[in-house]
Specification:
The structure is a single chain. The mean pLDDT is about 85. The strands form 2 sheets. Strands 3-4-5 form a 3-stranded antiparallel beta sheet. Strands 1-2 form a two-stranded antiparallel ribbon. A hairpin with a 2-residue loop joins strand 1 and strand 2. It has one domain. Helix content is about 25%, strand content about 45%. It is an alpha+beta fold.
Length: about 80
């Protein structure tokens, strides 16, 4: 997994880039308020680690886009010609 982040600090934009493996996926739900759900991807690399949190609505958007792009790949045929 590769992460690219732009962060503004004192009027300057810093670009950060990290890579690593997804180690764990957590689904968090508040017992007192069951409407509060979040999905967390925990990753760790050689020089970086972190957690990316998504709301269910954000995760649904990402999932829909991935399915749509995957369906496009299913329709592609590769034709090889003999030389």
């Amino acid at each position: 997994m590769k992460i690219k982040v732009k962060k503004e600090d004192f009027g300057k934009v810093h670009r950060l880039e990290a890579s690593g493996e997804i180690k764990e996926i957590l689904i968090n739900q508040d017992f007192l308020n069951p409407q509060n759900i979040s999905i967390s991807f925990c990753f760790k690399g050689e020089n970086s680690s972190g957690i990316i949190n998504f709301l269910p609505e954000e995760f649904d958007i990402i999932n829909r886009e991935i399915k749509r792009k995957k369906d496009l790949l299913k329709k592609v045929k590769i034709i090889k010609f003999k030389k």
